[in-house]
Queue: 4 jobs
Job 1
Amino acid sequence: MTQAKGAAETSSTMESILDEHRHFPPSKVFSNGAHIKSIEQYEAMHKRSIDEPETFWAEIADQLHWFKKWDQVLDWRLPDAKWFVGGSTNICYNCIDRQIDAGLGNHTAIIWESEPLENGQPEVRKLTYYDLRREVSRFANGLKKLGVQKGDVVTIYMPMIPELAIAMLACARIGAVHSIIFGGFSASAIRDRVEDGKSKIVITADGGWRRGKIVPLKDNVDEALTLTDLVETVVVYERCKNNIVMADGRDHWWHEVISTASEHCPAEEMASEDLLFILYTSGSTGKPKGIMHTTGGYMVYTYLTSRYTFDLHETKPDGNGGAENGDVYWCTADIGWITGHSYIIYGLLPNRVPTLMYEGAPDFPEKDRFWDIIERHQVTKFYTAPTAIRAFMKWGREWIDKHDISSLKVLGTVGEPINPEAWMWYHKVIGNEKCPIVDTWWQTETGGHMLTPLPGATTTTPGSCTRPFFGIDAAVVNSEGEEVSTNEGGILVVRKPWPSMLRGIYGNRERFLETYWSKIEGCYTAGDGARKDENGNFWIMGRIDDVIVVAGHNLGTMEVESALVSHEAVAEAAVVGFPHDIKGTGIAAFVTLVGGIEETDELKAQVRNHVAKELGPISKPDKLRFTPALPKTRSGKIMRRLLRDIAAGREITGDITTLEDKSIVEKLQQNSD
Ligand code: WTA
C-alpha cells in the first residue's frame, strides 16, 4: 500500500467533516488578557519563527536558566538537528530551582489527588517548589547511592502519584535517562522495554489504586524479571500496602533509600543534546520504538507550547499587597504517555502554574469525579482526550450540572481526531460556550504541540486542529512531495526542524531513517494523512500506516497480532481498527485456528484475554471473529482494507481482483464476532 493511497483510503471519515463550517472566534475579553491576542500577531510571529528560527528560539531559550549559553542555536544536517549547541542546562533546575530563585519557593508546584479511599475521602497532597526540591533531591541522592550514574537508563513503572513525578525529576536532576512505562502495561511489555533500553534498575510501587482495586505493579515487575536477568536493582514505593515479595539484595524500599539521603543535590550540568528520556511508542511493524528526546530543545519547546497553547498565567502580586490568582492546570493523561511527560511535568512546571495529578478513573466512585475535582481545585485549564469526552457525553450532562465548573477558561483535546459532535458538546456543556477549545495535534516523536489553535488568537472549527505552532513548517503533500490543492487529502509532513523533534529511535538508526525520513525527500513524515482547507486550517484524517489509535493510545496492529498468534490455538491473525462509539477506534481481530481445534465462544474469550495479559487491557480486541482463512493477495499480503470494511459492517467497495481466494469474502461475512 502506498502512502498516498493510504491517505485516500481514509476519505470516508473526511467527507463527514468536509461540510463543517461553524466558526468560533475567541471573545474580545479573552483575547485582551491573552499572551497572543490576535491572528495577525500569530501570523507575524509565525512568519518570523520560520524565516529567522535562530533569533526566534534564542529569545525564548533566554527566558529559562542555562549554566552556559549556547554557541549555535541550530545545527541542521538532515535528518539530524542539534539545538542550542555548546549550551548546558538542567530541565529539573528549570522545573523547580528557577522558581525558588525567583522567590516563589512557597508557591504550589503539584496538586495531587487520589481516588476516594475506604472512608470516601480522597487523599490530597500539595507540593510547593521547596517540597519538590527537597523530595527530588533526596531521591536523586538515593539513586546515586544505588549506583545510578549520568547516562544510565532508569525504568519507571509507577501509579499516578507524586513519587512518579519525583522519580522522573530526580533522574533529570542527576542526568540519568528515564524510560517510563505506563502502569497499565503488563510483564512482557516491561521485559521488552527493559531489554531494549538495557536498563539495570526499575522504580515501581507495591501497587496502584484503580476503581477501588489494587493494580499489582510489583508483581508485574517480578514476573517481568523472571523473563530477563538484566535488572540488578528494584526500588519499591509503598503505596497500597498489599502483600508483595521483596527479593533480597535486589529490591529496596523507597523510604529506606531516602531515609539517610541528603536534601541537597546539585542539578547536574547537562549538555543541551544530552539524552533526557526514552519513551516507547508502537510502530506499524515489529517491536515498539524507543523515541529519544534530548534536554535543551525539548525543554524550550514544551515550555513555550504550554505557555501559549493553554495561555498560562502565573499567580502575581496585584500591587495592593494581595495576589492576582493565576491558573490551575489539569491534564488528565497518565505520565506514562508523552502527553503526561510534556504537559503534566516538563512544559508546565517552568511556567510556574500548579499542575494537577490525579490517580484514579473518571467514573469512580461516580461519573462526576472530574467535575468534582475541577470545582474543588478551581481548575482553569483542562486537557483531556476525545475518548474521554465521548464517554462524558454518553453518561449525560446531569453529572456536570451537579458542579460549578465556571472556573474553566481553556479546554484542550489530544490523541486522536475529535468528531465535531463531541467538539460541540465539549464547547457547550463543559465550556459553557465561553472557553476556547484547543485541539492539539502532535506525537510522541514531536515532543510537543505541532498543530494547534492559540486560544486568544485562533478562530476554531469543530474537528480541525487549525494552524502550525511557532517554528513549525507543516504541509500536506502527495507521494512526490508536491503540495496538494486546498481540501485535497495527502501526507502530512514537516519541512523544517523544530527544537523538540525526536533525535532517534534508541539503538536503531536504520529504523529511524526508514520510518520518518525515507518517504518524502528532506521532510519529516508523521504517518498521518491530512488536508488543509481554504482558511489554512489542517484536518487530520488518521494514520496512513497500520498503527491504530485506540482510546487515544497508539497501538501497533502487528503487536496485537503477535500476541494473538502466541496463543497455542491460534494459527494466524489479522487486526484492524473499526469505528467505535466511545474509543473512537476499536480493535477487530480475525483469527484462524490451528487445525482440528473447535471454534467455541469460550475459546474466543480465552484468546481475547490472552492478548490483554500479553500486552495490557487496552490492547484487548473488542471483536474477534474466527475464519477458515485470511484474505490475502497473491503476493501473500493480507488485504486489510477488506477486513476494515467487514469489521465496520460496511459494504465492500474496493477492488478485490488481486485476492487469492475470493470465496473467503463470503465466509468472513457469514461468521459473527
Ligand atoms: C493521533 C499523542 C488527530 C495522530 C500526543 C498521531 C491526533 C498520533 C491528534 C500520535 C489530534 C494525536 N487530532 N489525531 N489532535 N493528536 N493524534 O504518539 O494519529 O501517542 O500521529 O502522541 O495520535 O500519538 P502519540
Job 2
Amino acid sequence: AREQGGGRHAWFDPAMHARVVEQVRLEHDLRRALERGEELWVAYQPIVEMVTGGLAGFEALVRWNHPERGNIPPGVFIPIAESTGLIVTLGAWVLREACRQIAEWQDKRLPGSANLFMSVNLSTRQLNDPDMVALVREVLRETGAEPSWIKLEITESAVMEKAEQSIRLLQTLRGLGIKMSIDDFGTGYSSLSYLHKLPIDSLKVDRSFVMAMHQSEENRAIVRIIMDLARLLGFDVIAEGIETSADANLLRALACDYGQGYHFARPMPAADADRLVGAEHLP
Ligand code: C2E
Ligand code: CA
Ligand code: CA
Ligand code: CA
C-alpha cells in the first residue's frame, strides 16, 4: 500500500492522477459525441476584407456542448482528439459540415458578388493521414463545394514535423484547386528558409502579435515585417485577433488583406452567419 513506503512512493502525484482520469473521461465522452452526433457543432467566424470591410469568408471552428459540463473549449478537447487519433473522424466531420455550409451560402449570394471562402483547420494528424486527399475529394463531390472556396489552415509546426511529406500533400491538395494557409504564423519554430518552398496561398498572423501591436513600435515592426515577407513571397495576409478599431486601423495602414476578430464579429452559429451572407456589409 502506498502509505507504507513513505517518501519512496512520491511518484504517486494526485494532481497528475486527476489529470489522467479527466483526459480518459473526456476521450470517452468525445468518442460518444462523435458517434451520436448531437453535441458537436460548428461555429463560423466572419473574415473581412480590410479595405472594404466586406465579408470575405469564414473560419469553421468546432464546438462541443457537453451534456453535463456545457461548453468545453477546443483548446481542451482538440489536443485530446489529436493524441487519441479521434481528430481524424472529428476533422472529417468538420470538413464535411463546413463544405456543405459554404456550398449553401454560395448559392444564396447575389449574382456578381465575389465568392466567399471557408477556412477549415487541419491538425498534424490529418496532415500525415494518407487518406486525406481521398477524403477531400469525396467531401467536395458530396457537398458540391468548389475547391477554390476552401482554404485549409495548417500550423508551421505541423508542416515542419514531416516537412517533405507535408509539402507533397499540400501540393496535391493545391493541385485540386484548394487554397492553403499557414495558421498562427510566427509562433512555431518556423524555418524561414522553408517558407518560400511551401505551396501555400496565405499567412495568418498569430493573434499574439496583433494584440501586442498597440503596446510598442517594436511589436508593430514585427507585424510589418511579417507583411513584407508575405508580400515578397506572394502570399495574402490574414490578421487574427483584431479586437479594437485601433488595431484594425494599424493593420489597414500596413495594407493587410484580411482581418478576423471580435472587433468585426465573434464565431457564431450557422443560422446567425447565414444572415450576414446575404448582406453586403457586416452590421
Ligand atoms: P485558431 O485556429 O487559431 O482559431 C482562432 C481562435 O481565436 C478561435 O478560438 C477564435 O474563437 C479565437 N478568436 C477569434 N477572434 C478573436 C479575438 O478577437 N480575440 C481573441 N482573444 N480570440 C479570438 P477557438 O474557437 O477557441 O479555437 C481554439 C483553437 O482550437 C483554434 O485556434 C484551433 O487551433 C483549434 N480548433 C478549433 N476548431 C478546430 C477544428 O475544427 N479542427 C482543428 N484541428 N482545430 C480546431
Ligand atoms: Ca485557424
Ligand atoms: Ca490561428
Ligand atoms: Ca491558435
Job 3
Amino acid sequence: MNNVTLSIENEVAVVTIDRPKSLNALNSETLAELGEVFSDIEKRKDVKVLILTGSGEKAFVAGADISEMVNASPAEGRTMALLAAESFAKLENMPQVTIAAVNGFALGGGCEISMACDIRVASENAKFGQPECGLGILPGFGGTQRLPRLVGKGRAKELIFTCDMIDAQEAYRIGLANKVVPQAELLDYCKKMAAKIISNGSYAVSLAKAAINTGLDTDLASGLKFEADAFGLSFSTYDKKEGMTAFLEKRKEKNFKDF
Ligand code: HXC
C-alpha cells in the first residue's frame, strides 16, 4: 500500500491515511486502498475497534484530491463517488466500532469519511467543513446524506451552502464531534475509549451498532422490530449469561467471550 498504513495492537487497528504532502487528500488509489483495508478488517476476529486518522499534525484529510478531479469527466467523477460510497459503507457497517481521530483539517471528503465512522474525536486544532460548492461541485462522498443525519437539516444546509469552516469546539457544539482533546492526547484518548468499548460484550456492541444503523435508515416501527430481534438474539449468548451473572455475584471482572 502506498497511501495507507495499518497497525494492530490490543485488538485495536489504527488506519492512517498517509499523504501528508497533499494534506492526506483522497485520490482514487487511496480510496481503493482504504476499501481493501476495511474489507480485511471487517473479517478479522482479532480487531474490535478501528481508529482512522491522518498522518502529520496539520490534516486529518483535506478532501478528495482536487488535482485528480480537475480534469475528470462526469463519468469519472461518478466513478470516484461510487468507489468512496462502497468503501465508506464498509466502514460504516463493519461489526467493529470505528472512531475517527480527527487530527486537523477534515474538509470535503475528509469530513465525509469521518462521518462514516461511529464516533468522531477531534483535536483542538481540527477544522471541519464541506467546501465543495466553492469548487463548483457538491459533497459527493456522502456529505449531503450523513451531515444532515448528524447535525440536522438546517445546520447541514448552512455548512454546505456557505462552505464555512468550523473549529473543533463548534463541531462539538453542533454534535459533529463527540469530544475535543489536545492534539498530543488524541490517539491515546481514542485508544482508551477503544479499551472501554472492548471491555464490554463485543458481540452485544456490534448488535447495538447494527440496530442503530438499521433504525436510522428506516421507519420507527421497523427499527423497533429490528431491535427486538437483536435483543432476543443477545439472549442466546454466553456473554449475556456472564454479564448478568457477574452483576448478581457483585463481580467487577467479566470474562466475555464475544459470542
Ligand atoms: C489536492 C490538496 C488538497 C486537496 C490540500 N492540498 N488540499 N491537494 N486536493 N483536497 C495540497 C495543496 O495543494 C498543497 O500542495 C498542500 O496540500 C498544502 O496545502 P496548502 O493549501 O498549501 O496549505 P494551507 O495554506 O495551510 O491550507 C490548508 C487548506 C487548503 C485550508 C486545507 O489546503 C485547502 O483549502 N485545501 C482544499 C480543501 C478542499 O476544498 N477540500 C474539498 C475537496 S472536494 P502544494 O503542492 O502546493 O504544496 C471534495 C469532494 C468530495 O472533497 C466528493 C468527491 C466526489
Job 4
Amino acid sequence: MVAPIRVAVTGAAGQIGYASIFRIASGEVFGPNQPVILHLVEVPPVLKALDGVHMELDDCAFPTLAGVVKADSDHLEDGFRDCNWVLCVGSIPRKAGMERGDLIRVNGPIFTSTGRAIAAAAAPDVRVVVVGNPCNTNCLIAMKNAPGVPSNRFYAMTMLDQNRAASQLAQKAGVPVGAVSNVGIWGNHSATQYPDFYHAKINGRPATEVITDHAWLQGDFISTVQKRGAAVIAARGASSAASAANALLDTVKGIIRPTPAGSCFSAAVCSDGSYGIEAGLITGFPLVSDGQQVSIVQGQTHTAFAQSKIDITINELREERECVKDLLG
Ligand code: LMR
C-alpha cells in the first residue's frame, strides 16, 4: 500500500484554493494510486466556510483522498505538520488599478510566518509553491525565513504566464494550443516578465518561423501576456482564479513529472547565477524535470532585444527585494 502524501493549501476556501483542492483530491495531480491527505489552512473568519468545503470533499467520495486536516492561519505549524507540499495560495488579491508589487507590504509579512512554520513543521522533503502575489518576492521571504529548508524546494508560479503565452501563440498561428511548447517565462510574475517567444516551438518548429509577424511577437504578444492578469480583473471584477488554480496544478505536475524532450516548463526558482542572474533571487526560468530533480535549462542564447527585457524584469526583482529587506530573516 502506498503511503499518503500530505499537501497543505493556504487560502483553501478562497477562489483559487477552492478551484484547486478538489482536483488535487481527485488524483489528477499525484496520480490515481497516490493517496493524499489535504491540509486546508484558512484565516479564522473563514473557518466556517472551510467546514463546508470539507463536507463537499467528503461528498465527492474521492478514493485518493485519505484524510483532511483543517487549521487556522494563527497555527500554521499545525497546518503544515509533516506536509510534503505547501501550496501558498492565501493572500490579499490585487484589485483594478493595482500592480502586483503594490501588495508587497500587505502580503509580504504573511510569508515570514509561513517560512518559519514550514521550517519548523513540514516534512524533510517539503516543496513549496507560492501563488500569492507578488509571488516571486513572497517566495523569497518564505525561503529566507525557513532556515534548514534547501533553497531548491521553493517555487513561485509563472506557469499562468506560460499558459497565457502558449494560448496567445496558438491563436496567432491558428493551431491548437497543444502544438505550442518550450515557452519559458523569465523574471518576475509581473508586468515586466519576459515570455520568451524566441525559444518557443509550434509543432516542433521555431515560433518565429511559424509566426512571421515579428512586430506582434515583440509588441502585442509580450504586453498581452504581461497585462493579462489586469485584463482579467478589469473584465471579471476579481483576479483570475480557475486559471490560477490550473496553473498551480500544472506547476506541481511540471515538477514531479519528467519534462518531454526538447521542451521546458516555467516556474520561478532560486537563481544559482545561471545566465548571469544574481544568485539568490527568485527568478522565472525555463526548467526541466527528470521527475525527481528540477534544473534550469542551460545554454539558451538571447538576442539583444530579449536580454534587455530580461534585464528590466531582474531589476524589478531587485527593487522588490529592497522593499522587503526587513522581512528577509
Ligand atoms: C494573475 O496573473 O492573474 C494573478 O497573478 C492575479 C493578478 O493579480 O494578476
